[in-house]
Amino acid sequence: MRKYVHLYGMFIKNCLIAQMEFRGNFIMSLLVESVYLLAKLLYVLVVFRTDLHVDGIPPEGLLLFIGMHTVVTGIYVGLFFTNFTKIPEYIKDGSLDLMLTKPVSLQFMASLRYVDLALPIPDILVGFVMIGIGWHAMDIPLTFLQLAGFMLLLFVSVIITYCLMIIPALLSFRFVQTGSASEIAHSAWDANNFPMAIYPTWVRRIGTFVIPLFLITNFGPMFLLGQLSWFYTGLALVGSLILFTMIRFLWKQAVKGYSSASS
What we know:
29% of the residues are buried.
C-alpha cells in the first residue's frame, strides 16, 4: 500500500510540474471551467425564484444536493476523466503493452496515472460553498458525527463514481468504438444533480440498487437532513466496496482477453 501511495504522490507531482510549464493553459482551464460552471448554475437561480420544493425539501436544502453533485463532478474531472478517456487510446495504439511490463497494478497505472489540477478547483470550491450555505440554512448541527457521516458518504460517492464511469473504458477492450457509451454515461451523470425524488419509483429503484448512480448525489445530503440512518450509511459503504470488487474482477477478465495491438 505504501508503494502505491508514494507512486500516486509522484503522479500528482509530475502532473503539477507538467501543468506549471504551461501556466497560461492552466489559467485558461480555470477560467473556462469557471464560466462553464457559472452557466450550469443558472438553474439554481430558477430554483430560488420559483421557490421550488422537492419532496418537502426547500430550495436551501436542494443546495446540499446540487453542491454534492458539483463537488463529486470536480473530483471526477480531476482524478478520473482524463485517465478513462485515455484507456481506449492505450488499447488502440498498443501503449497498454508497455504498462503490462510495469511491476505495479495495470488498473492502477491506466486509470489513475494523470491528475488534472486546474479543472476541479472551481467545482470543488463552489460545491463546498453551496453545501455550507445549505447546511447553515437548514439549521443542521455541525457535530463530529454529522461531519464524519457526510465525509464517509462523500468517500462512498467517489468509489461509486470510479466504478460506474470506468465501465465505458472497460468496453473498449471488446469494442473499437465506445464513444456512445461514454456519452450515455455523462448524460446520466448530468441528470443526477437533484434529489432522486423527482423521478418515478421504478427509476429510483434502478438508480439505487441496479446502477447506483443516485447514491453519489443523494445519500450525503439525505444523511444531513436526517433521512438516512447510520445503518444505511454502513450498507452504502459495503455496497460500494462490493461494486469496486466487481469492477476489479471485470478489469482482470478484460485484460485476460486483451490482444496486443502490436502482435
